[in-house]
Amino acid sequence: MEQLFKGKVALVTGAGSGIGEAIAMLYAGGGAKVIVSDVNEAHGAKVVAAIKDKGGEAAFVKCDVSIADECKQLVDKTLELYGRLDIACNNAGIGGESKPIAEYSVEMYNKVIGINLNSVFYGMKYQLPAMLKSGGGAIVNISSILGVVGTANAAAYVAAKHGVIGLTETAAAEYSAQGVRINAVCPGYINTPLLDMMDAKTKAALIGLHPMGRLGNASEVAELVIWLSSDKASFVTGGHYLVDGAYTAV
After folding, report:
1. Model's pTM, two decimal places?
2. Residue 211 near residue 249 (C-beta atoms within 8 A)
3. How confident is the model at residue 194 (pLDDT cuts 50, 70, 90)?
4. C-alpha angle 246/249/250, rounded to 5°?
5. 9, 80, 83, 236: most buried by Cβ count inside 10 Å?
6. Residues marked as catalytic
7. Whole-angstrom Cα distance, residue 218 to residue 221?
8. Are residues 230 and 31 in contact, defined by beta-carbon separation less than 8 angstroms?
9. What sign results for the dihedral spanned by CA atoms 241, 76, 70, 36?
10. Is 58 within 8 Å of 36 (Cβ atoms)?
11. Distance between CA 206 and CA 64 in Å, rounded?
12. Where are the alpha helices (DSSP H) in 119-217?
């Protein structure tokens, strides 16, 4: 793989599985030193081991991204280990309940907003100063197709993912002139552990919503994140980009 990130340090949240794991692996393959962050230590350690097995450099840092102080500690630990921060992908997220608004629990709503939206604010709040000290950088926030369209029975998730795009646009307006590019990626339904709880009938119905006739793969999302994080996307900032098999086109 082309050494797009040689000498750079990348941080990925929710990197213990799925899209986050694929992103972390590609950053490492491109020459970056990677901070693999997740709440699941076993999953995170497995990704670090996989990176090292391929000759890359990585370290695991546990973080509950819904807690501001832990997001700060994550960046502090990154700087302690590697001395700089050049790239961050705020990817951690959960699905939440599948219920209409009147039946949606306040507890779960707050949990989804905390992990899927507040975490992106907390992440950027502490990532940005570190990047400015390093001379600039790139942030990619993972939103969703449900950041640009709504769907029934997913109020918290839809609200959070719409909010991620708004935060991304705001941050880009504030920091692009200082050398930090900030973009969002909006995946369709991707074959990740997040969908493992679905039965075959539900999954088949989801596939039918994608004109390509299949779900996406984590690597297909990761490839776009890698490009947005690289110098090849030097004039790309403040946007949100769909990886959805034409889900939102119909």
Report:
1. 0.96
2. yes
3. low
4. 105
5. 9
6. 157
7. 5
8. no
9. positive
10. yes
11. 30
12. 119-133, 155-175, 200-208
In one-letter notation, the amino acid at residue 224 is: L
| Total residues found in the chain within this entry | 250
Q: How far apart are CA 144 and CA 66, in angstroms?
A: 18
Bridge partner residues of 62 (DSSP): 38
Beta partners for residue 88, in sequence order? 11, 139
Q: Which of helix, strand or coil describes residue 209?
A: coil
What is the dotted CATH code of the domain comprising 9-243?
3.40.50.720
Residue that the structure tokens 């090849």 belong to: 232
By the 8 A CB rule, do 50 and 25 touch?
Answer: yes
Q: Which residue type sits at 116?
A: N
For residue 196, what pLDDT is reported?
A: 75
For residue 195, what is the DSSP state?
G
Residue 202 pLDDT grade (very low, low, confident, very high; cuts 50, 70, 90) = confident
For the chain, which residues make up each domain, given as ranges? 9-243
